[in-house]
Amino acid sequence: xxxxFVKYFFRRGLPPLMFLLILWYGVAVYVRSTRQxxxxxxxxxxxxxxxxxxxxxxxxxxxxxxxxxxxxQRWFWGYAGGVGLGLGTGLSATLWPMFGNVLMxxxxxxxxxxxxxxxxxxxxxxxxxxxxxxxxxxxxxxxxVALSLSQGLxxxxxxxxxxxxxxxxxxxxxFFAVQLPAALPHLLTGLxxxxxxxxxxxxxxxxxxxxxLGLGYSIIQSRWTLDYAAAFICIGVIVGFGxxxxxxxxxxxxxxxxxxxxxxx
Length: 265
What we know:
By secondary structure, the chain is mainly alpha-helical. It has helices at 2-34, 42-53, 64-95, 97-111, 119-126, 130-154, 158-166, 171-209, 215-225, 228-258.
């Protein structure tokens, strides 16, 4: 996964990054000269990032690793729970159309609700703690996974199912050998969409709830401490982890599964 991400970065990510650094430097110089505001330069960010990595400097009385670990743990449990519920919902809706007529419109309705809009309900259900962010992630992750799986299974060509029946495949083998591979392009799209949504929600939830630990909490607190460099570093870490999982993990899964079964050019 790591080497796949590095390869993608040097092939596709390096030119945009260089352009971003040049633009960043120009904006920083402009803001410093016109507004006299301490807009951090890329070099200053690099120095503080190194200090935070080497634990020479604390970020809100904690190490950078502690904030990253807190955000990743909340995201992992929320994303895993949302994916599990989404897969179960999408599969149930396909196997039992009666449930699908109820569950799929409900998933479409929930999918339209922004993740942060669930905060009042989440606070009433679990209180103000780390479980609040996890519940928000679950509610944000579940609908796209359920909808993508259901749509993918419904879009399997009937010819595939007919050939499978003619070959004498049992329903279980037909599902894993024919239906699931054919639905994988839809499912991977839903998983990627859920990943992006859930990662944004955990950061935003940490900003609103104020958990004391996490990348989102560090960003929102930087406005009081005037540590703008730390805010930029946390934003960069958020983007880095998102790209690593999206293009590293899901890119590898797409290569191994979807292309292996010939469902995508």
